[in-house]
Amino acid sequence: MLIPISIATGCLLGNVFFHLLPESDNYFLVLLGLLSFFILEKILKWHHCHDHDHHHHLTQMSYVGGSIHSLVDGALIVSQFFVSPSSGFATLLAITLHEIPQKLTYYSIFVSQKMSHLKAIGLSLLTSAPMFLAALILYIFRQNLDTSWLTPFTAGSFLYIATSDLIPELHHHSGLKQNLIQLFFICLGLYFMFFLLRFE
To answer: Is the confidence at residue 142, as pLDDT, over 80?
Structure first.
């Protein structure tokens, strides 16, 4: 988990600072993207804390939360391909790397709620279904939709995911060797995003 989370952190931050922010001229929308993900996470955690059926709700909210994030991810990926192929690929890669540890987390939660391994795998993968739906809808109606706001919004959401979800997870692993491993793979993710600038 340490290596994929470190690479995902570097890719998300690299995508923000090398691809998304240079294309963004409305920093209010960057802030809006960051705050939107903050509010979404707060709402999901608030419902989780106030539900009496803890085990059922943990499964339910993990699925709902994963599906909502997936829906947004699909729109973000397609919108960046409208900007440029390299920007779209950078966003796709960053989201995919972030989703790997996320899917493993969902799987662990579902199994902990006495769900069979096969069903837990299927439900974890099913949380990605809204991504394809959002991507398809956005692609079909691309001529009638203004997607320019999605670039700065994506930058804000990626900043939130990297700094609020991924980096705190890396801080759970201390020690010189682990810190150096994290730094190396974060830099590797940053370098890969920088390398993609050649294709813009």
So the answer is: no
* Domain residue limits at 119: 2-199
Q: How many domains does the chain have?
A: 1
Query: Between vectors from CA 119 to CA 118 and to CA 125, what angle results, nearest 5°?
Result: 95
C-alpha closest to that of 14 among 131, 74, 98, 70: 98
Alpha carbon of 8 to those of 46, 75, 147, 153, 161: distances in Å? 27, 19, 25, 19, 10
| Mean per-residue pLDDT of the chain | 80
Residue recorded with tokens 């956005």? 138
Contact status, residue 5 vs residue 131, Cβ threshold 8 Å: no
- Token readout for 53 is 């059926």
pTM as predicted? 0.73
Distance between CA atoms of residues 146 and 183, nearest Å:
38
Q: Phi/psi of residue 52, each to 5°? A: -75, -35
Q: Which residue has the tokens 């966003």?
A: 91
